Amino acid sequence: MPENTKKDIRSLSEEQLIALFADIGEPKFRAKQVHQWLWQKAVASFEQMTNLPKLLREKLEAQFEIREIEVVDEQISQDGTIKFGFRVFDGEFIEGVLIPKDDRMTACISSQVGCSLTCKFCATARLDRKRNLDFFEIFDQVVIIDRKARQHYGKPLSNIVYMGMGEPLLNYANVKRSIEHITSADGLGMSPKRITLSTVGISKMIKKMADDDLRINLAVSLHAPTNAKRGQIMPINDSNDIEGVVDALEYWHQKTGNRVTHEYVMLSHFNETEEDAKALAAICQRVPSKVNLIEYNPIDGGSYERTSGNRAMNFKRELEKHGVIANIRRSRGKDIDAACGQLANKKGG
Ligand code: SF4
């Protein structure tokens, strides 16, 4: 890890910036200008803060830095999906993905370096969790992927999904702060309705998020409709079982009025029977929800296979018979390992 004594100025809140500026004899409006440069214009250096006196920029430079994450790898899929490898200040790597589809430009971003969970179908699970990302490292992924969307496709980002490496609700404080900067009028000003957080289902934190009134969308990786099956592919089910997750989702719905999306990866001869569909429909009837049936992307050395198109269609029909809205989600960016569950597929080990 490189020696680093300076602090990222973005770790200071606006109030802390104002207090700091008061200490060094600078007026409050200067602190507000700096805040704007950092979060609205997302500049990566003090030099770019052109409306500040040179002396002030030098003072800030002597004490702080702006550790923008660096793009070190960029791979474009045949379907236009672009996967980015980012290096963060301490030399660790994370990945983010730009998914262009119809009018949408969606960024899939990471919330941790690696992941502490061990979902059996996921490549990221093979990387140990090294650390949580700071909120400004999460924010940087959005800023960079937005610039790339404009550069490659001439359009800004329209949607953000917290669905990359890591479990966002195990890094909740930073995830929440990143969302605040992405959505606030003093930040990027995106609508929270355009943001989806995807979680394995940490019940306690789903309730906390409902209380915090973030107004974003929630997707839960259910992936199996019974504890017996879910426990086999998602060890987190031992501490956060389906009953607890559904309770938390009911609470979420009561507080926010929002519908929930259940993510369900279709694994051949594992979670695709008629009984599975019925059990899943029963869960969906408890909380207003829809189901995304996700085409599985086998990972190197993994033990699961993709469900055939026919079986996936039958499963969808069975759900619909019970009044459940279900969509089959085809994978994007498979050829570059950018699809769901594939991040770190080739780097992991
Ligand atoms: S699916 Fe998500 S929570 Fe599970 S191991 Fe992969 S990154 Fe972690």
Short description:
The protein is α/β, with parallel strands linked by helices. It is 35% helix and 20% strand. The chain has 2 domains: 7-65, DNA polymerase, domain 1, CATH 1.10.150; 70-336, Alpha-Beta Barrel (TIM Barrel).
Please give a structural write-up.
The protein is of the alpha/beta class and 349 residues long. The chain folds into 2 domains: 7-65, DNA polymerase, domain 1, CATH 1.10.150; 70-336, Alpha-Beta Barrel (TIM Barrel), CATH 3.20.20. The protein is 35% helix and 20% strand. The strands form 3 sheets. It has a 10-stranded mixed beta sheet with strand order 3-4-5-6-9-10-11-12-13-14, with helices on one face. A two-stranded parallel ribbon has the order 1-2. Strands 7-8 form a two-stranded antiparallel sheet. Helix 1 (14-23) crosses helix 2 and helix 4 crosses helix 5. The longest helix is centred in the middle third of the chain and has 19 residues, at 135-153. It is elongated and about 70 Å long. The model has no long low-confidence stretch (mean pLDDT 93). Bound molecules: iron/sulfur cluster (SF4).
Oligomer: single chain
Assign an overall shape: elongated
CATH architecture of the largest domain: Alpha-Beta Barrel
Number of helices: 10
**How is the biggest beta sheet arranged?**
10 strands, mixed
> Ends: how far apart?
21 Å
Q: What is the topology, as strand order, of the major beta sheet?
A: 3-4-5-6-9-10-11-12-13-14
CATH class assignment of the largest domain: Alpha Beta
Helix share bin:
25-40%
Bound molecules: iron/sulfur cluster
* Uncertain stretches of 5 or more adjacent residues: none
The CATH superfamily label of the largest domain reads Aldolase class I
The computed structural class is alpha/beta
The residue-averaged pLDDT reads: 93
Question: Percent of residues in beta strands?
Answer: 15-25%
Evaluate the radius of gyration.
21 Å
Count the beta strands. Answer: 14
- Write the element-wise H/E pattern from the N-terminal end onward: EHHHEEEEEEEHEHEHEHHEHEHE
